[in-house]
Amino acid sequence: MVAPTTILSLFGLAAAVSAQANSTRLRYMPFGDSITEIICWRSKLWNKLQSTEWATVDFVGSGRGENNCRDTKYDRDNEGHSGFLAINIANQRQLVGWLQRNPADVITMHLGTNDIVQQNKAVSDIIAAFTTLVKQMRDHNPRMKIVVAQIIPLGLGNFNAKVQELNRAIPGWAAQQNTTESPIWVVDQFTGFSGSGDNRDGVHPNDSGDNKMANIWYPALIKAFEAAKADKHGL
After folding, report:
1. Sign, CA torsion 192/193/195/200
2. What is the per-residue DSSP string for 103-133?
3. What is d(CA 117, CA 209) in angstroms, rounded to the nearest whole number?
4. Burial of 70 (0-12, 13-18, 19+ CB in 10 A)
5. Which residues of the chain have pLDDT under 70?
6. Per-residue pLDDT, 4
7. Running DSSP on this structure, what letter comes out for residue 201?
8. What does the alpha-carbon distance between residue 222 and residue 108 come to, in Å, rounded to a whole number?
9. Residues 80, 34: contact at Cβ < 8 Å?
10. Whole-angstrom distance, CA of residue 98 vs CA of residue 84
11. CA atoms of 160 and 168, how far apart (whole Å)
12. How much is the pLDDT for 67?
């Protein structure tokens, strides 16, 4: 017969192991507007990770929509918000609450489309909002690993000149904001992406666009995961 104290010790050990596993599991927040919310690149990215050491990364966020991706397995959690402007998210401190409810170690950001399309905001104002958002990320987690996209082109209207203006501003801004503890990687989602051929409606990626976006996110995201893992293990 196993003594009660032995059973309690075993339960305590199991709980400690579980707590340690949870504390070292990486949490990744896909953050943005509808190009993060009502698309399937997150599904493709999750599946791409399943054959790697990053298969257990926990996607986090308040959104869990399926989006007709024909994939019942992937981790749907995300912080994509259709129609939202980067400027409003920053000024209204919405990201602060989202991160409080769903803490993250790594975040990707694809924002600015609605600022341009809906309200023709100045690029300088969008970049200022990005600076505020990065500060809010770091206030939540001083060692946040951040991947920022130069955003995809549109297949409607005359918006791509302003999109390209924003995209040109992002690398220099990111270099200024970059720190050793909380690095920023910039990925180019614009080059090689067809606003007409890779979007299903001129704005949101179709299957080929989703594939392109997942493949562009992937290398930088792996670097971010590696850096976040080193933090978790005190390397």
Report:
1. positive
2. --SEEEEE--HHHHHHH---HHHHHHHHHHH
3. 20
4. exposed
5. 1-23, 235
6. 58
7. S
8. 12
9. yes
10. 14
11. 12
12. 84
